[in-house]
């Protein structure tokens, strides 16, 4: 008997994570699998931002509405913790968001992808591109809200 597919969505505490959760839910539904959402916060506290508790609650509620199981972990070594979670939960598909532009962000993204690929068993990785950064902040927020309303 074949094991049920498990999809893991790695998120950060920001509104844009809804898009990743939605994609993970879509993939899980298409493949008849389980949806897991993971946030790994560097350090020992997830509430570094003032609005973090509210955003965490909103993301948890949204993920739960889509049938996802939400996991929050604090750790100094984010890629290692993601790979450990993948091994422990026997995840087959990983959904990540493309980080903001910039050399450091690209290095972090590659580090996570490379570490996971080298230290977790074979896994399919789906990376969602960011919504255009060429928009002004107000325009970006408006476009993001329209996108969320359209696909929520």
- CATH class assignment: Alpha Beta
Summarize the biggest pleated sheet. Answer: 5 strands, parallel
Q: The CATH topology, please?
A: Rossmann fold
What's the mean pLDDT score? 76
Structural class: alpha/beta
SSE succession: EHEHEHEHEH
Question: Termini separation (Å)?
Answer: 35 Å
- Second CATH tier, the architecture: 3-Layer(aba) Sandwich
> What is the radius of gyration?
15 Å
* Biggest sheet, spatial arrangement of strands: 3-2-1-4-5
Number of helices: 5
The level of helicity is 40-55%
| Poorly predicted tracts of residues | 133-152
Q: Considering the protein shown, what is the CATH homologous superfamily?
A: HUPs
Query: How big a fraction of the residues is strand?
Result: 15-25%
Task: Give an overview of the whole structure.
The protein is α/β, with parallel strands linked by helices. It has a single domain, classed as HUPs (Rossmann fold), CATH 3.40.50.620. It contains five helices and five strands, in the order E-H-E-H-E-H-E-H-E-H. It has helices at 17-30, 52-65, 78-89, 103-119, 137-151; strands at residues 6-10, 34-41, 68-74, 93-97, 124-128. Strands 3-2-1-4-5 form a five-stranded parallel β-sheet, sandwiched between helices. Helix 3 (78-89) packs parallel to helix 4 (103-119). The model is unreliable at 133-152 (pLDDT under 50).
């Amino acid at each position: 008997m074949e094991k049920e597919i498990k999809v893991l969505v790695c998120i950060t505490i920001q509104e844009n994570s809804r898009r990743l959760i939605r994609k993970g839910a879509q993939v899980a539904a298409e493949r008849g699998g389980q949806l897991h959402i993971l946030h790994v916060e560097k350090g020992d506290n997830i509430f570094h931002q003032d609005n973090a508790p509210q955003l965490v609650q909103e993301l948890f509620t949204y993920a739960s509405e889509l049938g996802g199981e939400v996991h929050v972990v604090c750790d100094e070594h984010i890629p290692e913790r993601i790979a450990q979670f993948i091994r422990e939960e026997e995840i087959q598909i990983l959904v990540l968001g493309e980080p903001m532009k910039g050399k450091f962000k690209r290095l972090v993204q590659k580090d996570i992808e490379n570490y996971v690929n080298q230290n977790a068993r074979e896994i399919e990785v789906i990376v969602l591109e960011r919504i255009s950064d060429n928009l002004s902040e107000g325009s970006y927020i408006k476009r993001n809200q329209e996108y969320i309303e359209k696909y929520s």
